[in-house]
From TrEMBL:
It catalyses: Hydrolysis of (1->3)-beta-D-glucosidic linkages in (1->3)-beta-D-glucans. This is glucan endo-1,3-beta-D-glucosidase. It is found in: Cell membrane. Belongs to the glycosyl hydrolase 17 family. It is a lipid-anchor; GPI-anchor. Residues 1-27 form the signal peptide.
Length: 496
């Protein structure tokens, strides 16, 4: 009896310790968007997340190739529904049932660990002019009903990712004055009530960068986590950063309306590295390191000591995103388009970011302005404009990493972007005979601005489909189960 007890306890302890080491950086989430001309293969991205300790991912919609790659990955999923689909979902519960059957149940049964359905994406943003206001709550209710019908009511929770402009504080600007925005106040209460009744969290996106972008007089040190000379004093609390102040404004708004224990998730937070004078590597690193250090310490805010689950925005740059909000929109990644590391980030436990593995590139050739071409050629401006309409030239803009190149390098940058974006195709380096392909790496003459080579998705696709690598993926997924099974069999062995 004695030996049974001790070996059983010992085994439990081993299982417990294994759990700790398997889930080393618990509670680290990231947004994975796929609006890129050349999205990295999902298998490479899943490995990238695991290698960097991300154990939660937020997706903007149900894409089969992405969800398939997350099977048995150990990564928890928040699955988004685009705003454009809200009206359809609101129109009837049958549509929601179809959505849940096809996009949730089907993947859950195949080993995708879906924990949340995020209905809409910042649907009440003021710039949408109430386009999604009426459909959001009915869509949430229909998805919830469909989840219950599918037997997933406990396992999968609904939520709505909201922009931080759904709440505000009065003229004083202190968190304790926080309440929901007047024009949607009653709607917000109905939504929060519904989420609360279903033990679901509220999700909020907080962007100190956008505060700075919108207001050039915004005190810049308040945007980061490193303290400020002019804290916002709210009663006995001094707020030293906009994140705490913003988050606590929501906590106050919830408390004031009777929801003081409502769970909150930070659905998006981050800092872009290009496309604006405040979007650069130093600021992005400073902000994201401040954020990461809080997550590692398990630090909450003055008003709520329990830290929220946080999903960093974003994982990888997306060169096909709309630039309506600004040129920075394509540069939110902590990794570049190819999964390479942009800057050093201390991820805790003596770890820093590690790059994607197994990425294949096109051959080392670039499209540049021909040596004989004249800068005053009448076709040059149109050629640059054409290249930049079909490829991402946001790095050339004011305040960006490639701004201020001389005219020749500027043209070459645009030509090369187009050539790479079109997979180095024959004919993609032909701008009225003003361009030429070179195998000698060209230099832009500006640090931090490079002529890039695009990733070769054709090679990825082949690599992804080989049976050997698929089998390796499955083995990896079962590794943990195998160890548990081994330990369980040892218990049985000792007992008998
Ligand atoms: C599943 O989600 C995708 C992506 O949002 C959508 O296009 C599709 O219509 C959904 N399926 C159903 C049955 O609603
Ligand atoms: C939302 O519903 C209200 C009340 O039914 C209606 O007056 C309003 O026009 C609707 N808004 C939109 C954008 O459809
Ligand atoms: C952290 O990593 C560095 C370099 O890999 C190593 O030299 C150092 O001993 C490590 N420190 C700890 C506390 O593990
Ligand atoms: C550089 O290219 C951009 C296109 O993004 C163009 O607007 C600008 O005029 C060019 N600058 C020079 C100096 O040629
Ligand atoms: C480019 O050069 C070739 C050969 O020199 C010539 O045949 C062609 O017409 C030129 N094309 C343009 C658009 O100038």
């Amino acid at each position: 009896m004695e030996s049974y007890n001790s070996s059983f306890l010992w085994t439990l302890m081993v299982v417990f310790l294994l759990n700790i080491s398997f889930l080393s950086v618990q509670g680290l989430g990231v947004n994975w968007g796929t609006r890129a001309t050349h999205p990295l293969s999902p298998d490479i991205v899943v490995k990238l997340m695991k290698d960097n300790g991300f154990d939660k991912v937020k997706l903007f919609e149900a894409e089969p190739f992405v969800l398939d790659a997350l099977r048995n990955s150990g990564i928890q999923v928040m699955l988004g529904i685009p705003n454009d689909f809200l009206a359809t979902l609101a129109s009837g519960v049958r549509v929601a049932e179809d959505w849940v059957t096809k996009n949730v149940s089907a993947y859950v049964s195949r080993g995708v660990d879906i924990r949340y359905v995020a209905v809409g994406n910042e649907p009440f943003l003021k710039t949408y002019k109430n386009m999604f206001t009426n459909a959001t709550l009915p869509a949430v209710q229909n998805i919830q009903a469909a989840l219950i019908k599918a037997g997933l009511g406990r396992q999968v929770k609904v939520t709505v990712p909201l922009n931080a402009d759904v709440y505000e504080s009065s003229s004083a600007g202190v968190p304790s004055e926080g309440n929901f925005r007047a024009d949607i106040h009653d709607l917000m209460i109905s939504i929060v009530q519904f989420l609360s009744d279903n033990a679901a969290p509220i999700t909020i996106n907080i962007y100190p960068f956008l505060s700075l972008y919108a207001d050039p007089h915004f005190p810049i040190d308040f945007a980061f986590f490193s303290g400020t000379n002019a804290p916002v004093v709210d009663g006995s609390v001094s707020y030293t950063n906009v994140f705490d102040a913003n988050y606590d404004t929501l906590v106050w708004a919830l408390e004031k309306n009777g929801f003081s224990s409502m769970p909150i998730i930070v659905g998006e937070i981050g800092w872009p590295t290009d496309g604006d004078s405040n979007a650069n590597l130093q600021y992005a690193r400073k902000f994201n390191q401040g954020l990461m250090s809080r997550i590692i310490r398990g630090q909450g805010t003055p008003k709520r000591k329990t830290p929220p689950d946080v999903y960093v925005f974003g994982l990888i740059d997306e060169d096909a995103k709309s630039v309506d909000p600004g040129n920075f929109e394509r540069h939110w990644g902590i990794f570049k388009y190819d999964g390479s590391v942009k800057y050093k980030l201390d991820m805790g436990k003596n770890r820093t970011l590690v790059p994607a593995k197994g990425v294949r590139y096109f051959q080392k050739q670039w499209c540049v302005l021909a040596p004989g071409a004249s800068e005053s050629d009448p076709n040059l401006a149109d050629s640059i404009s054409y290249a930049c309409t079909h490829a991402d030239c946001t790095s050339l803009g004011y305040g960006s990493s490639c701004n201020g190149l001389d005219a020749r390098s500027n043209a070459s940058y645009a030509f090369n972007k187009y050539f790479q974006t079109l997979n180095q195709q024959k004919g993609a380096c032909d701008f009225h005979n003003l361009s030429v392909i070179t195998k000698i790496q060209p230099k832009t003459g500006k640090a931090g601005c490079e002529f890039e080579i695009m990733i070769d998705l054709g090679k990825h696709e082949k690599a992804r489909k080989t049976p050997a690598s698929a089998a390796a993926g499955r083995l990896q997924g079962y590794g943990y189960l195998a160890i548990v099974a081994f330990l369980l069999s040892s218990i049985v062995g000792w007992v008998s």
